[in-house]
Fold these 4 entries.
Entry 1:
Amino acid sequence: MEGEFKPRVLGGFPVGPDGRVHTTFTHNPSSLRLSSVGPNLQNIPRGSGSEYAKWVKEIFIASPGSVFWERDFSAIEAVLVGYFAGAPNYIRFAKMGVHAYLASHIVGRPIDLKWSNADIKAYIKKLKGEEPVAYDTAKRIVHGSNYMMTAVKMSYEYPETFPTPKKAHALQGLYFDLFPEIPAWHRELAIRVDGTKRRRPEGGEVVDPWTLGVAYAQNPFGYIHRFYNVLDWTLLEAEDNGGKREWVWSFGEDAKRLVSFLPQSTAAAIIKRAGKRLWYDHPEVGESMRLWIHDSILGESSEASVEHALELSQRVMEEPIPQLPLDPAWGMGEYLSIGTEAKVGRVWAAMR
């Protein structure tokens, strides 16, 4: 038709001869999280109700007679934060809904630790429906605080949720009051990895009490990361410190990278372990894998075999992880395991 508007689309995803988009996985992030480039298929635009994400994902459609399946680890990084912090109650709520647990305290109707898991799950489901604003607020507090985001940074990043740093600080304080193991882990880990040592001449007294060293952290799978400025040290002179001359520390520029390294690199190792098991031990499902997305595996199977892919991927991904032994006193079994959730659909944007 004359004068008809014809939109022009520039760029887009490059498609291979097989009609699929191909990406390259890397370990570029400092935390050794798995990343994706050329193009990046892990960070499709996000956001609650985001139309942009929907538009992008709508262009990915399963082959005729096939459907996409996706199984993701439930709150894997939160569970691992609890593991490394040595906090069994935190692990318990991370598996059921630590965001909702904090939200219940924000709205003044707190979950009781004495409740059964079934009662807690039912309450969490109800709370998420009744208090969506408090739930989203709690989610940002949990994610930010676990990785040492300051109240000032939270207010800057999410002004609609935290109009002032004071509000963010108060909610962060509530979170740390509920789970004091988290900030204690931050401090203990930073002090241990900083590598600062006293220097003593042979047979003499300390001449330069502190010198910044170089140390490393190693996750349970053997990944090593070196850190160079975990703590900053300041000398307080006697006249400014009540007559006592001492060195005091504050978190340095590498502290946040250190804290994020252990849960994020371990989560990456866990999904690689699961993917490797599916590929080598169960090729009928392994060969259906199409993409790894931080904490989930996306596959494409025939409609007749998708139930098998879902059942087998659940069994492999949820099995106990021998690299993560548990304290017997916690009563949670011999090794840590992490739950999963699944969804299915012909179009990536409309999976249920």
Note: The chain has three domains: 62-75+261-350, 88-178, 188-257.
Entry 2:
Amino acid sequence: MNTRILSSLRFPLAALIAFSLVRCGENHAATTPPADEPIPVKLQSVTTTGEGKILQYSGLIASNSEARLSFKIGGIISRIYVKEGDHVVAGQLLATLDLTEINAQVQQASQNLEKAQRDETRANNLYRDTVASLEQVQNAHTQTTVSTEALRIARFNQQYAQIRATAGGTILQKLMNEGEYASAGTAVLVFNGAAQNDWVVRFGVSDKDWAVLHKGDKASITIDAYPDERFTGVITKLAEGADASGGTYAVEVTIAAAGRKLAPGLFCTLQLQPAGKRSLTLIPASALAEGDGNTGFVYTLNADKRTVRRLPVRIAWLQGDRIAIAAGLDTVREVITDGIGFLTEKSVVRPIGHSDSLTK
């Protein structure tokens, strides 16, 4: 099957009609036959197919485990221990802030907790001697609890004043340098957990193609880095709404790496085979007399084998030198391919044979 597919139902019909006229000229005289003579024509048997349209798109390989790593708190970057392209292991220290301020906050919180604990102990002793009230004891206990949680927060922030690798992978980008001030949550490193081997391709499809695609549909993938190999994939994500900026629907295809080394940014071409199929009629492209968008006209012989009918058809898709017809040829067995440039609905014709069969 010819796998070069147009991803839209619209195609240059003017060029297609021109192709049909050239075919006529190749097989017959370039001039119109005399009006009193039948026009010689060739016919082609139509075929039906249950195959779905193959959709072709392109995109860049990415990883589901790609992450933009940042510090939880703001501060001056003290050290960055990795470079772009470095391979790292889970838990490896990648970058750290200057800890002078955060260490002081931890020490301050620790001192506040010690004071709160002393105050609570003193309040309990006074309460036993009936000098302090129950309210004073409860307030001292609350202060101890608050100071304990403040110390826990300070230590948590101290822990996340460092960036560590969450898994084995590769550093894709270093976005900041030592000595720069990093705000809380600002990306410092772009990390790809390639060890997960969860490679995907993300791209957008038109509304017509989105309507026939489903999660689980298969994909055949060609990667430019491996031009002689084909990879398999499956649709794992299908957006339920259009992208506001481009108007397309996001699709994600997960790729089976098949033991090959992949990397983010590799260009690839995908051919998607929707699971849903419908019965379509195939005709050669040269049989289309004229068309506009997804509608057109073809000619077929009447029962007398001398006169012709002009039939409107609805075009499903164009694939190579074949046109799939969704409606209009339900009871038609043959269409005229050669000589259509000379025909009108009042033409008298003389069949002179059949064209070559459709390309499979």
Note: The chain has four domains: 13-52+278-354, 56-64+198-273, 66-97+163-195, 100-160.
Entry 3:
Amino acid sequence: MGFLDTLLGRTKPVPPNLDALFALPSAAITLQAAADFRPTGTGSVCFRAAEGRAFADIEHDVRDLLAMDSEAKSAVRLSKDSYGYTWLVCTRSPDEIESLVTDLHAVNSSLEAGGFGPLLLCTLVAFTDAAGRRLGLVYLYKRGTFYPFAPQTGERRDNALELQVRGALGDDLKIEPDLGRWFPVWGAPGL
């Protein structure tokens, strides 16, 4: 970044670090100890679907790759939200968070390697507690950071819980410092 960029307020985009997803299993242990939230076994990758054969081939290859693991008891499905984004949802046993994260990393890596990295929006891993509260840890692809999202009924958020989780996971995950970027992901599949 040059002097002129600094004067004009231009910033260099943060390169995504997909390997940051591998910090989620240890964060899950911290989250369970600090707030009694446990993984549900569901995670998803959100992206803007592109038209064309190349994207369709990658999407097909990713689904085949995840379904090929004969030892895994994972389910993979596609879902579209009301904003036009596509969610590839992976489901595993709740005690297989390491395998779930590996699946989500494979989806992200395949799309990125195919040249579709700019279409990736976020990755989400779902958690719940004994009281039935829901929580998602969201990885923002373009920022390289995580944030907690705690939806309640009626499109409301549990902001106190989100801030509690931020405090608990600050040493495990790179948390997004700008609260304005903690976008709600209403209707995210699996959450």
Note: Residues 16-181 form one domain.
Entry 4:
Amino acid sequence: MALGVFAALVGHAYEVGAQEPPPIPFFVVDLQGTTVSFPSDPSLAASRGLAQGELPGRGFGANAAVHVFPFKFRAVTFGFGGRLMISQATQTPEPVPGLRTVTERLTYLGPQISLNFGTGAGWSYLSGGIAASTWSVVPEGQAPLPPDEERLQTIDYGGGARWFAKPHLAFSLDVRFYAVNPSTPALGLPGAPRNTFFVFGAGISLK
């Protein structure tokens, strides 16, 4: 009798230990803070009638994304969703005659397709999408110029990972590039050049 109970307990412990990790969930929301390197390019400054020293440089912002993972094929779980990323930088130059405070902002909203590798306890991914972004560079007290409001075709691509230390809460990282098309020349000024922004995000994921 005792041997039978012992064997049953050992068998149950083996079954628990042998359980596969949970699959990637159907639904995830990412909320992250971001940092972005805005360009310090004389061509960009010329497109807004600015001095190169007025361009802000590094900025910060936020990233929010929603994903669903409807099916898996072998080791890959396919995801679909959308992403909103807003980053901004403001620089007040050293007291130099003629230099103004300038605010630069990149805003992107678009769809996402992802390839995901791992389990519900934690997984990595590659993702990307094509949509439009706005890229504004506006001196303090000045109205936006047409290029600041133009919707520019943008390809975003990158990857990251999520680690679920708790059942519904994860720490997440995202490394992403936004390749933004040139803007249209306007008001006698040249168009802004094509540029690729590097954006790093860190925050939480909820499932």
Note: The two ends are 45 Å apart (CA to CA).
